[in-house]
Backbone:
């Protein structure tokens, strides 16, 4: 399936990559690889991950990176709604579903 990012999710991804880059180039590379791997798995089989709130699904990254990819499917497209840090307020991204 094709992947599409909500603009706010793309901004979250950029800022998270920048955060890891400022801390450690190796951590930044590992994070980028983990995100890429997760996105490929989601695109291959979007129903693989458990249902979340409001018709979404959630892909939780491994313990090293406390982030969750929140997405939903529509026809032949996967829409990434959030790259959510797990300590943020749950569901903060829900207003993105109506955009």
Residues:
């Amino acid at each position: 399936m094709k992947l599409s990012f909500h603009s706010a999710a793309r901004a979250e991804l950029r800022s998270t990559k920048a955060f890891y880059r400022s801390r450690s180039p190796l951590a930044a590379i590992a994070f980028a690889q983990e995100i890429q791997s997760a996105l490929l798995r989601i695109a291959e089989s979007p129903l693989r991950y458990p249902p979340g709130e409001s018709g979404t699904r959630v892909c939780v990254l491994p313990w090293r990176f406390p982030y969750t990819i929140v997405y939903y499917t529509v026809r032949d497209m996967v829409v990434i709604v959030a790259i959510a840090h797990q300590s943020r307020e749950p569901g903060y991204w829900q207003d993105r579903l109506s955009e």
About this structure: Residues 25-44 form the longest helix (20 residues).
